[in-house]
Write a structure and sequence with these properties.
This protein has 144 residues and is of the alpha/beta class. The protein has helices at 11-25, 68-80, 101-106; strands at 7-10, 34-40, 46-53, 84-91, 113-118, 122-128, 133-136, 138-141. A hairpin with a 5-residue loop joins β2 (34-40) and β3. It is globular. Keywords: Hydrolase, Metal-binding, Metalloprotease, Protease, Proteasome, Zinc.
Length: 144
């Protein structure tokens, strides 16, 4: 693996993703949260922002589905600000941050980052290859 395979994640974005995931985990029952990652597609990919998108899945406790209209709006806003949609994020409020069978079956954006957050403070990034997910190291970058 080369350094180009590393996801560069702004510290403030990491904190915002963890906060969003904790909000979903604190619901009764817990719910997966989701959104779009903004920044620069690489290599290396750099995430400098995140846009929350409603989870419209039928069973939000164990799966996510990005609201289609809100997702397109988020991507348009990212591109209007001269950024790139780097990928997507969602949480696993009651399990480890590894792709589930549902995550694998529903992934469609080949070459993009899929970041999974598990409260209280765990996250992992994967690139969807079309055939599956390849884990990416994460380098947290200070906002200074």
């Amino acid at each position: 693996m080369t350094s180009d395979d590393t996801l560069r994640l702004a510290a403030g974005v990491r904190d915002a993703l963890l906060d969003h995931a904790r909000e979903g985990a604190d619901r009764e029952p817990p719910e997966e949260i989701c959104g779009v990652l903004a920044g620069e597609r690489g290599p290396p990919d750099r995430v400098t922002g995140a846009r929350r998108v409603p989870n419209v899945a039928g069973h939000p406790r164990t799966e996510y589905e990005l609201d289609p209209a809100a997702t397109m709006d988020a991507i348009d806003r990212i591109e209007d600000a001269r950024g790139d949609a780097v990928g997507f994020y969602h949480s696993h409020p009651e399990s480890e941050p590894v792709p589930s069978a549902t995550d694998r079956a529903r992934a469609t954006w080949e070459g993009y980052v899929y970041l999974i957050v598990s409260p209280p403070d765990s996250l992992r990034a994967y690139r969807y290859t079309g055939a599956g997910f390849t884990e990416m190291p994460i380098q947290v970058e200070s906002s200074e």
